[in-house]
Amino acid sequence: MKYDVTVIGSGPGGYVAAIRCAQLGMKVAIIEKYDTLGGTCLNVGCIPSKALLDSSEHYHNAAHTFKTHGIELDNLQVNLKQMIDRKAGVVTDNVNGIAFLMKKNKIDVHTGLGSFIDKNNIKVTDKDGKETKLETDKVIIATGSKPSSLPFIKIDKKRVITSTEALELKEIPKHLIVIGGGVIGMELGSVYARLGAEVSVVEYMDSLIPTMDSTMGRELKKSLKKLGFNFYLGHKVTEVKGTTKNVTVKAENKKGETVELNADYCLVSIGRKPYTEGLGLENIGITPDDRGRIEVDEHLKTKVDNVYAIGDVIKGAMLAHKAEEEGVFVAETMMGQKPHINYNLIPGVVYTWPEVAAVGYTEEQLKEKGVEYKTGSFPFKASGRARASMDTDGLVKVLADKNTDEILGVHMIGPRTADMIAEAVVAMEFRASAEDIARMSHAHPTYTEAFKEACLAATDNRALHI
Ligand SMILES: Cc1cc2nc3c(=O)[nH]c(=O)nc-3n(C[C@H](O)[C@H](O)[C@H](O)COP(=O)(O)OP(=O)(O)OC[C@H]3O[C@@H](n4cnc5c(N)ncnc54)[C@H](O)[C@@H]3O)c2cc1C
């Protein structure tokens, strides 16, 4: 079979690239080694984790806040099997949706492992070992990533687990140790803490979600402490031992003191590594860099002229929407268009409660760059909407250029900030000043007023409600 473009990997990078290529008139094949499309994000990432976060949040609210709202319940119970089954249903609906989109756009789906024979010929090997050869003009590598670990940790997938197994547990852990204080660990730790597990986080750095503005990590820690999390920040894990029934984790602090934690499960969530196994990169002369990433130029082209790479398998934030933007970018580039991605304006979100969401520069980055900036903050405890819903933890922090008032960074922790951050992205794409936002009407009462108030605060300290 002969194609204009063959996409290897059907995650948010790959399937979006395939759709955009088809929209632009190319004959497209997509290869996926698993039986379902959608990649990490839809099968074992964004979607199932959000499904469990939503379910566990309902339970937690029913157990802890309904009474204050005047709603009384007897015999509240968690049915974990039903919760996991509902999550599986959400995943199925989503992956079927992608299969429908492939059909609608006349994209040929080939199930099996894709590997390069040479730069214009790809071999697809299915589960039974049957091989199909595809001839192609161009190739987009979108093979994503897998959970990474430390050399001395044996992931047995039963007691010592990754995010993939954490989405499928058959029981609520009594004590869950989470190694790594990043996004995935805090989200999945929240799921089980809300369902009643004791959760202990061991993190090497001194703060949670360390790549985000430090105010966010500090505030998130306060909220998760209220949920019952224990924190061992600034602790280096030195040993993880799993048996059939439990796990022991040893970690050392900066003074050299060792703590020993015992639990029934240990989630290793220290990051993800690009995935290129079995892809046959050697057959086209590509060697991944020291972190396993495929190197690309500013057009997301590899050193092989007709081969592009996008998403988690290349440099940059490992986020679904970053992969999607790159999919569109590559398709349009192939057609001679001049698309653009502003990587500084790709938002980052943590779906804990309160949610954390951010775009643009952190305060630490502005200091390092020597930019003169001003800040404006507004706490949700001063928001009427947040008081009505009893979601008063958190704040919105706006960083603006001291001289021009242009918004340079927005950092939010609070209710529904995952959705609210879109306004900040739009503002920054249009290079709005803090005063521009401060002078726009925001519906009352909404959480979004907190962004307006933070912009007012950044504009000569003019917040109205604090
Ligand atoms: C628990 C968890 C929660 C997450 N939550 C979020 C979130 O809320 N928001 C967000 O933006 N991001 C989230 N992410 C990250 C997000 O899932 C990834 O950034 C995103 O999936 C990357 O997309 P991708 O297309 O690059 O690769 P992937 O989604 O990893 O897809 C790659 C696909 O390629 C296939 N493949 C690999 N090699 C081959 C081959 N040789 N032949 C055929 N097929 C192959 C794989 O099977 C896979 O299906 C989460 C991740 C995890 C693990």
N-to-C span? 66 Å
CATH superfamily of the largest domain: FAD/NAD(P)-binding domain
Tally of distinct domains: 3
DSSP helical segment count: 14
By CATH reckoning, the class of the largest domain would read Alpha Beta
Helical amount = 25-40%
CATH architecture of the largest domain: 3-Layer(bba) Sandwich
Q: How many DSSP E strands?
A: 22
What is the overall pLDDT average? 97
Bound molecules: flavin-adenine dinucleotide
- Strand residues, percent: 25-35%
- What's the CATH topology label of the largest domain? FAD/NAD(P)-binding domain
Largest sheet data: 7 strands, mixed
**Rg over C-alpha atoms, rounded to the nearest angstrom:** 23 Å
List unreliable stretches of 5+ residues: none
Instruction: Using the alpha-carbon principal axes, give the shape.
Output: globular
The assigned structural class equals alpha/beta
Descriptive notes:
By secondary structure, this protein is α/β, with parallel strands linked by helices. It folds into three domains: 2-146 and 273-334, FAD/NAD(P)-binding domain, CATH 3.50.50; 160-270, 3-Layer(bba) Sandwich (FAD/NAD(P)-binding domain), CATH 3.50.50.60; 354-460, Enolase-like, domain 1 (2-Layer Sandwich). It has 14 helices and 22 strands. The strands form five sheets. Strands 1, 2, 3, 4, 5, 6 and 17 form a seven-stranded mixed beta sheet that branches. A five-stranded parallel beta sheet has the order 8-15-9-10-11. It has a five-stranded antiparallel beta sheet with strand order 18-19-22-21-20, sandwiched between helices. α1 (12-23) packs parallel to α9 (320-334) and α3 (46-64) packs parallel to α7. It is globular and about 65 Å long. The chain starts with a strand and ends in an 8-residue tail after the last helix. Bound molecules: flavin-adenine dinucleotide. It is an enzyme of class 1 (oxidoreductase). Keywords: Disulfide bond, FAD, Flavoprotein, NAD, Nucleotide-binding, Oxidoreductase, Redox-active center. One of its GO terms (molecular function) is flavin adenine dinucleotide binding. Its EC number is 1.8.1.4. It comes from Roseivirga echinicomitans.
